Amino acid sequence: MPRRGRKRKKTRTHVVDTDERIRGGLLSNDELKIPRSLVIRRGKVESELTELVTDIRKLMRPYTAVNFKEDAKNRKVTLSHYANSLSTSMGVTHILAVSQNSNRVTLRVGRTPGGPTLSFRVKRFTLGRQIRSVQRRPYDSTKAFESPPVVVTNNFGDVSAAPHVKLMRITFQNMFPAINVSTVKLSECRRVVLFNFIRRDMSQVSSDKKKHVGDDDDLEDEEVEIRHYAIRAKPVGVDRKVRRLVEAKIPNLSKLSDISDYITGQTSSGAPAPAVLRPGEMSDSEPEDEDTQVVLPGKYRGKGNNQAQKSALKLVELGPRLRIKLYKVERGMASGDVMYHAYENKTPEEVKALKQRKEGEAALKKRRREEQEANVARKQAAKDEKLAAKKARKKEREEKAMAALRG
């Protein structure tokens, strides 16, 4: 059947702006400096640790792989493989690996691609789900995770602190983007991550353990406590009932005859007005303390939190909650010299002997690899030579057969 109608003519054309495309493909220097993390689990772990990995990814948002899935076939893949594969292509700067064995849980934090690697022993942890279950009004906002948190490092000391303590502080700070005070937007400061360094007098702890047997027997010196909070702001300077109306939390006024009865708390006849607040609407932990009240330099999240308005700040814990202990620092990415160990002290002679042994093992491994590569090359050359000889013999037989046919 003949074709009916004219040939289709293209009427829509997508014009690509070359300059805009180039500017979109190139990253600015500030974007290149943003640290990006990857939180993974290593080996077989309990279901609680799987939830802990999810909570840590939530804490590290937005510059982390939230939906990263570990392949069960790659359980034996080392951290250096992750670092070499993802640090260049995906821009990953830090890898956090959670693993478990029969008696402990380990968290390793490594700087890609060359280290160092900090190994922590997880003494205790509480999931975000468990924290929300005991809160009266848990915090639930997805927009709070669209901007990086404010990092607070407490009690880590000054420049006179021990080298491993300074390394911990620098590592915790560099896992999150730095905040420029002159350009940061107040509305983006929605979360706080606290790293609290706990120092204890172990002699006093030992004497207390003798008095109270079984209470905190695993207490150690130089532990780090990690907390994750959300920032809430409430306008102050007005009556609490008026503030409820400003925040669009309309109470039940069915038992009142006028809005003034709700504001004043009594009816027109002078009798007390019935209670109209729902259970749980009032809280004993409302931030009414003057120490928590600040004058906002700009508009903040929430109704009534306008510029130059006095508001009270409140922290709501999001989870997870961890208490970790640094026990080893390695120079490379989960490999190399041990720069610090909390439970083993070696003399300079032992360190020198260990370093020489490691260098000897590395040299032996390199020599064996070179020998293996040479053997593979020799076998491949012999195989190619044998194949070439076979082809030459076949060609010679074909030439003789053709000569015989020609007489």
Features:
Brix domain-containing protein, 407 residues, rRNA binding, PPAN-like, alpha+beta, flat, 11-stranded mixed beta sheet, 11 strands, single chain
Helix content: 25-40%
Shape: flat
Cα distance spanning the termini: 63 Å
Poorly predicted residue ranges: 276-287
| Number of helical elements | 10
Pfam family, one: Brix
Region (Disordered): 266-290, 357-407
Protein name: Brix domain-containing protein
Domain Brix: 35-335
Quick summary of this structure?
This is Brix domain-containing protein. Residues 357-372 have a biased composition (Basic and acidic residues). This protein is 33% helix and 20% strand.
Structure, described:
This protein is of the alpha+beta class and 407 residues long. It is 33% helix and 20% strand. The chain has ten helices and eleven strands. The chain has helices at 18-25, 29-32, 47-60, 79-86, 128-133, 163-174, 202-211, 240-246, 259-264, 348-406; strands at 37-42, 94-100, 105-111, 117-126, 150-154, 191-198, 223-235, 293-295, 310-317, 321-330, 338-341. Strands 1, 2, 3, 4, 5, 6, 7, 8, 9, 10 and 11 form an eleven-stranded mixed β-sheet that branches. The chain starts with 17 loop residues before the first helix and ends with a helix. Residues 276-287 have low confidence and may be disordered. GO terms for molecular function: rRNA binding.
Write the layout of secondary structure elements.
Blueprint: H1 18-25, H2 29-32, E1 37-42, H3 47-60, H4 79-86, E2 94-100, E3 105-111, E4 117-126, H5 128-133, E5 150-154, H6 163-174, E6 191-198, H7 202-211, E7 223-235, H8 240-246, H9 259-264, E8 293-295, E9 310-317, E10 321-330, E11 338-341, H10 348-406
Parallel strand pairs: 1-2, 5-6
Antiparallel strand pairs: 2-3, 3-4, 4-10, 6-7, 7-9, 7-10, 8-9, 10-11
